[in-house]
Design brief:
Blueprint (H helix, E strand, L loop, with lengths): L1 H16 L1 H10 L1 H18 L8 H22 L9 H13 L2
Helix pairs in contact: 1-2, 2-3, 3-4, 4-5
């Protein structure tokens, strides 16, 4: 995880000076993740597994935001060592929070 955080910090620093690189990085990392989660949620909406008034794209945005949250920001900034002790439990909790009926 520490290597990922260091890479993330470096990419964000370089991106400020290279907007084209930032756009490509976003599209290939965050954008792809967002598209993939949107597709899964759209399938859930289409099949009735997910019942929500928001669009799949908005739901994906909300879910990713919940997953990352301020803990991830603190880790990026070096304020905290690790953001989650149990990532799987955290992910499950976030999904249940967003989709609780």
């Amino acid at each position: 995880m520490a290597t990922f955080i260091q890479l993330d910090r470096t990419i964000h620093e370089v991106a400020r000076r290279n907007p084209d690189l930032a756009k490509r990085f976003y599209e290939n990392a965050y954008g792809r993740e967002h598209d993939d989660i949107t597709a899964v949620l759209q399938h859930g909406l289409d099949e009735g597994f997910v019942v929500h008034s928001a669009s799949a794209r908005d739901l994906a945005d909300h879910l990713i935001s919940i997953w990352e949250g301020l803990r991830f920001v603190r880790t990026r900034l070096g304020v905290d060592e690790m953001q989650f002790e149990d990532p799987e439990a955290r992910s499950t909790h976030c999904v249940k929070t967003l989709f609780r009926r």
